[in-house]
Design goal:
methyltransferase, alpha/beta, Rossmann fold, 7-stranded mixed beta sheet, 37% helix
């Protein structure tokens, strides 16, 4: 935890016991969820955008969906998770949070999901937080479901600092993923169909606004 995150935690008063339990669950079971500073910043960005609908790729145990839903009483979230164990935990947590009416959870592989099954044909916001080496494929499939003027958010763009070092310094098992993540970043930053920014918050958040 950085000095900033430690300092900021002193002022966090809106996190309830269920959220704290989920954070501990994720830590003990090595489930990747957004860092506290990252999710807080993401919620702040959504408060500026004020979306009515959001599609999330990568539910994990439902942490980010629940945090977001608690901050936006009118927002409906569709979220996709392929891992059976994580999906089951997400179902439990969402029910315990009494948010099953506003969070639609799909146990599917996002890359093969029939998008006609989703409750919305177009979304105000898209949040990608799944397999980092597949970001470009997720983006290309689901960007079509984002309204003109809508925003696409991607987490873990720094991948714990691995994008900043030479390839030989990256563990071999991660090199293809990091190579793909860097290629995606270069592609989207140069894509004229989007206005894109990369924020050094949490593990790196990318924001791409779809041109009208």
């Amino acid at each position: 935890m950085t000095n900033y995150e430690s300092y900021k935690l002193k002022f966090d008063t809106g996190v309830d016991s269920l959220v704290t339990e989920m954070e501990q669950d994720a830590k003990e079971n090595f489930v990747p969820i957004m860092e506290r500073s990252g999710i807080d910043t993401f919620i702040g960005l959504l408060k500026i955008q004020q979306p009515d609908t959001l599609l999330e790729i990568g539910s994990a145990i439902g942490y980010s969906a629940i945090r977001i839903a608690k901050s936006f009483p009118e927002l409906h979230i569709s979220t996709i998770e392929r891992d059976e164990v994580r999906h089951a935990k997400a179902v439990d947590y969402i029910q315990r949070a009494h948010l099953e009416g506003r969070i639609s959870l799909f146990k599917e592989d996002a890359l093969t999901l029939n998008t006609d099954l989703l409750p919305e044909s177009l979304y105000d916001a898209l949040f990608i937080d799944a397999a980092k080496g597949q970001y470009k494929r997720f983006f290309e499939k689901y960007a079509a479901l984002v309204k003109p003027g809508g925003i696409i958010y991607c987490d873990n763009m720094f991948m714990h600092g691995m994008v900043f070092v030479e390839e030989q310094e990256v563990p071999k098992r991660n090199r293809t993923m990091i190579r793909n993540l860097k290629a995606f970043t270069e592609w989207i930053m140069a894509n004229p169909e989007y206005e894109t920014s990369l924020l050094p918050v949490g593990d790196g958040i990318l924001i791409a606004r779809k041109n009208d």
